Here is the input.
Amino acid sequence: MDISINIQKETVLSDNWYVLKRIDFSFKNKKGEWKSVHREVYDRGNGAAILLYNKLKKTVILTRQFRMPTYLNDNSNGMMIEVPAGIIENEDAETSIIRETDEETGYKIQEVTKVMETYTSPGAVTERLYLFVAEYNDRMKVHEGGGLESENEEIEVFEISFEKALKLISEGTIKDAKTIMLLQYAKLENLI
Here is the structure.
């Protein structure tokens, strides 16, 4: 289905952290009639995420950190278990995720495999998320990780069995979409 779109006006509502805009536009519906609507759109740039896995130990590296939006939406302590991830900063997605992996986990990886691209909340957020996997071993751990103090990151890094991570999804402990997608990808592709 092709849709004809005419954007009439973009209004910046906030540019404090990222950019929130109101977009006034019209589109031609199935009947061929033009309809005018508006939507709020949050532009935070694109991101990348990665599942680090170890075939021999049958483990994965995950992180835990506070996420205010989840706290505001019924997550009593605001803590989320996630795969390492971050915003792409004037670089390609692969370079970004290698940098983020080092900053967040302390693992220095060289090679990653891109497995998919997603729009995780396409009704409101412009972000395209690039998802990767990479094997790790203990020799790749070069520092403690934990994120950057300059970004006020306080990230707990932990190694967990792959089977336990999958169980945390079914128990409802892991609720982060990118983490669930990557763990399920690893299961479907028999990575571990």
Notes: The chain is about 20% helix and 40% strand. The chain has a mean pLDDT of 93. Helices lie at 68-72, 93-105, 162-170, 177-188. The first helix runs from residue 68 to 72.
